[in-house]
Sequence to fold (229 residues):
Amino acid sequence: MRFHLDNGVADIGAFRQELLRLDAGGYCSFEGWVRNHHLGKDVLHLEYEAFAPLALKQGELLVEQALSRFDILDARVVHGLGKLMPGELAVWIGVCAVHRASAFEACRFLIDAVKDTVPVWKHEFYADGSSVWVDPTTCTCSAHNHSDKA
Amino acid sequence: MKVTVLYFALLKQRRGLSEECVQTDAASVGGLYQEVNARHGLGMEANQIKLARNEDFCAASEPLADGDTVAFMPPVSGG
Fold:
């Protein structure tokens, strides 16, 4: 499996090791970190919920798409589940390729596609006691760079 | 027919359940959502949510069958 949901036990180093191949000249990795602020509010923690069977299916499909669209050798994606604190890893993506350009492109494609299509939802809990299920359709945070949605 | 409905995130919060069994005559997955929305006031229209039938994304027009499991999903916010 190339796409994984992690309840806190995933060994990212082991996934990187799976990508370490002698015919690869470039490796690109992305890490999505839990941030301690969003839209001006202090974030205490967040919780990710998933429709796991469909998330795994969709995640595998995305990695297959990356493998066919970009000149890469392999890729892995890990998405965190459950309660995460600021500073913890929400998403990890690794891509290896013969040359670096494709690795960068595929890595970018994967994080954008994961955010757009995988059935995972973020529940944010704030210092003022409030909490919200993040709605990507109304998020106006200028720091975001949402990919085009069809 | 008898269908299992799965709710996620904000829809789960509004319905107050993550899962339930419903009796329905709805012909499609979208039709079932409209039925459930009308009954419980989920606060989202069918065209605002994503639907799945038996662990596959589906269109609102997807025909419903006895024993199906459908999922009603708000816009995703992973990553």
